[in-house]
Design a protein that fits this description.
Layout lengths: L2 E8 L3 H8 L3 H7 L3 E7 L10 E6 L4 E10 L3 E8 L4 E15 L2 E14 L5 H26 L3 H5 L4
Antiparallel strand pairs: 1-7, 2-3, 3-4, 4-5, 5-6, 6-7
C-alpha cells in the first residue's frame, strides 16, 4: 500500500506538539492549508478513539474520517469512512517523539498517509500521481504545522 510521510522537529514538548496537531475550529483553519471546513459528527465535541470528523478540503473533496487511535501525547491515527471515489482506503497518523537537538529539547513530529486506489487497474497510473500530490500536500501541511508550533497566539490558546 502506498505511503507518504513528512517529519519536522519543533522546539516544544510532545504534549504541546500533540495539542497543536489536534486543534479544531478556527485555530485549525488558521494554520492548516488543506482544510476549508472541519467538524465533529455524531454528537462528538472532542477528538478520541471512535470519534468521526467531516473534513472539506480547500480544493474540493470531502471525507468522513474516524479516529482509530488517540494516545496523547505520542500518537493519533485516523481512517477514511467515506471519501473521494478514487480512494479504496485512506488513513493518516501522527507520531510524536521527544528529541534533543543541539542541546535544545523538542519534538520530532511525523505525519504519514497510507492509501489505496480504486479501481485497482487504475493504480499503476494513479499511484505515482498520488505520491506526488499527497507528498506535496503533506509537506505543505507539516511546514504549516511547524509554523503553528511557533505561533504564540496558537500556543496560548491550547489551555494545557
Amino acid at each position: 500500500m502506498p505511503q507518504v510521510t513528512a517529519q519536522v522537529w519543533v522546539r516544544i514538548d510532545p504534549e504541546t506538539a500533540f495539542a497543536v496537531s489536534q486543534t479544531t475550529g478556527d485555530v485549525r483553519l488558521r494554520w492548516d492549508p488543506f482544510i476549508r471546513a472541519q467538524r465533529f459528527v455524531g454528537g462528538a465535541t472532542a477528538p478520541g478513539k471512535g470519534v468521526r470528523t467531516l473534513t472539506k478540503a480547500r480544493v474540493g473533496p470531502t471525507m468522513i474520517s474516524e479516529y482509530v487511535s488517540y494516545r496523547p501525547p505520542t500518537s493519533v491515527g485516523m481512517t477514511m469512512v467515506k471519501g473521494p471515489w478514487f480512494f479504496a482506503s485512506f488513513g493518516g497518523g501522527w507520531r510524536f517523539t521527544a528529541e534533543t537537538r543541539d542541546g535544545t529539547d523538542g519534538t520530532l513530529a511525523s505525519w504519514k498517509y497510507t492509501y489505496s486506489i480504486k479501481p485497482a487497474w487504475l493504480s499503476p497510473v494513479a499511484e505515482p500521481i498520488g505520491q506526488w500530490l499527497l507528498g506535496r500536500e503533506i509537506r505543505a501541511r507539516i511546514n504549516a504545522y511547524a509554523r503553528a508550533c511557533e505561533d504564540d497566539e496558537i500556543l496560548a490558546g491550547l489551555g494545557h
